[in-house]
Specification:
Blueprint: E1 3-7, E2 10-12, E3 18-25, E4 34-39, E5 46-51, E6 57-59, E7 67-72, E8 77-82, E9 91-97, E10 101-102, E11 106-110
Parallel strand pairs: 2-11
Antiparallel strand pairs: 1-3, 3-8, 4-5, 4-9, 5-6, 7-8, 9-10, 9-11
Amino acid sequence: QVQLVESGGGLVQPGGSLRLSCAASGFTFSTYTMSWYRQAPGKERELVAVIRRGGSTNYADSIKGRFIISRDDAKNTVYLQMNSLKPEDTAVYYCCAGYASWGQGTQVTVSS
């Protein structure tokens, strides 16, 4: 079965950086579109970034120029490099495979 395990979240000061990782198993990773979503308290889950088979990407306007999504098909892992973090980036970040399978999420808190 599909398993997605996120890691790399934590507490960071405004302006700082974090790199999230999502280790995948149970499916042919290289053929799947992978994405990162986030959900802040009291808000709906929103799409942050997408990376398709072959490496094309799309980003939400709110994080464009600050976050970078990448994938390593040899390691079955997708990453989200988050730079210039802002308090409004605070949320639980979820990895998603094929817009259908979800990880358990990792908390990112941006605060001084």
